[in-house]
Amino acid sequence: MENWKKLNSIEYDSVWDKFEEKYQFRPSVSEFPGITNKFPQLKFDIEKCYDDIFKNEKIENIALDLFKKITKPNERMYALDWQHESYDFDPRFIIDKDEIFDEWIIPIFRNGDYYIFVTKDFKKLWFGHPWEQTITLVGEEIIKYSDNLIADFEKLDIKLF
Questions:
Q1: What is the pLDDT of residue 110?
Q2: CA dist., res. 22 & res. 35, Å (int)
Q3: Over the Cα atoms of the chain, what is R_g?
């Protein structure tokens, strides 16, 4: 876990407070959406991807490529797991995986929690909603890559929501 740096309790609280304020985060198993904002965004339906390890690996690769595009060299991002440990990481370094599940320490999606990847300025966001079964990508810079993202996701039978 050399790349994943656990947030201490002060950082954790500060980061979550900023995220909740900026994106009006409202966790719920039945009321959607989980975030509200006025920023440009894309939302994808990932229902068909659950329990498909092959697709999970492909989505990890898509996410990693995107994270490299939206950050500068040596710029770290936050990886947030709702009500669990959260981290920061550099998308250009090795992304360590959990030994049991063979997925990122904070997964892109799959095992039933909110997974959030956000730049430290909180302007670019990957928001995984476990019950709505969606991924929402937020930010002008992310939208610049929308044609490629949509095409990459469509290859995996992931459609815009």
A1: 62
A2: 9
A3: 14
